[in-house]
Amino acid sequence: VFPVFLLAWLRFGIGGVAMAHWLRKPADEPPLTRQTRGLVFLESFLGNFLFTVFMISGVKLTTAVSAGVIMAAIPAAVALLSWLFLRERIAPRVWAGVACAVLGIGLLSLSASPPAAPGAAQAQGTSWLGNLLLIGAVLCEASYAVIGKKLTGALGPRRISALINLWGLLLTTPFGLWLAWRFDFAAVAPGMWVLLLFYALAACMWTVWLWMTGLKSVPAAQAGVFTVMLPISAALIGVLVLGEPLSGAQLAAFAVALAGVLLATLPSRAALRVGR
């Protein structure tokens, strides 16, 4: 219904109105430093803006299977970046969880691959560029998790959510205004406006606040493993709501991916007790 950048602009605009009261600095929160301001900008630029550009452009130039397999590398990328930049110690079972996450979603992507549509832009001449863009999307999403972990040490989850949404609005405003000038808003059905409102609040406000709140107490490498729930939940909605079939191979992929989540999040004391 909406062009991508117009949709993004409307989304950030609705989120900005909903979170305007979250921009106020709490009394017990330190003033924004230059480093924190830079991290807030990078969080929005990489996680909101560039991720969207790379993801959508990459999928157009390569196959859905390739996209799924490449995006399955997000947990590993988060673990690697958290080790490099946050100096987090990655326990062996977290690495095992990352491996299960990558394997499970890779299997899911391969088992759920649809036949290529005639005339689709999946030619060998452009697939390498699409895959490269998707690798960029993986790095952007991993950076989003790692920078978010860093920000939670200086700002509260609500203020982080509001600030990165504000930057997203600023970054998409030139594109949004250009597209809005020629867009026929009167042709949009009332139900679509309701869906847009829900999408904006869910994507800009609720999920970001939940993610940042969780990052305050969970290492970034462990949090990255939870990204396996994105394709899993999407597939389950397809089965339960849209009536799509679920094969045995897809069930096996779900089991492996969920085993990765359990491996990465099992409390260490419980693991020691089981070992004894």
Overall description:
The protein is mainly α and 276 residues long. The protein is built from 12 helices and no strands. The chain is globular. Residues 115-123 have low confidence and may be disordered.
Secondary structure topology:
Layout: H1 4-18, H2 34-61, H3 64-71, H4 74-85, H5 92-111, H6 124-151, H7 157-182, H8 190-215, H9 220-225, H10 229-240, H11 248-265, H12 268-275
Helix pairs in contact: 1-7, 1-8, 2-6, 2-7, 3-5, 3-6, 4-5, 4-6, 5-11, 7-8
Descriptive tags:
276 residues, mainly alpha
Content-based structural category: mainly alpha
Helix percent reads: over 70%
Shape field: globular
Number of helices: 12
The chain-level mean pLDDT equals 81
Radius of gyration: 20 Å
Could you state the order of secondary-structure elements as H and E?
Answer: HHHHHHHHHHHH
Q: Which percent band covers the strand fraction?
A: under 5%
Count of beta strands:
0
The profile of the biggest β sheet is:
none
N-end to C-end Cα span: 58 Å
Poorly predicted ranges: 115-123
Structure summary:
This protein has 276 residues and is mostly helical. Helices cover 75% and strands 0% of the residues. It is built from twelve helices and no strands.
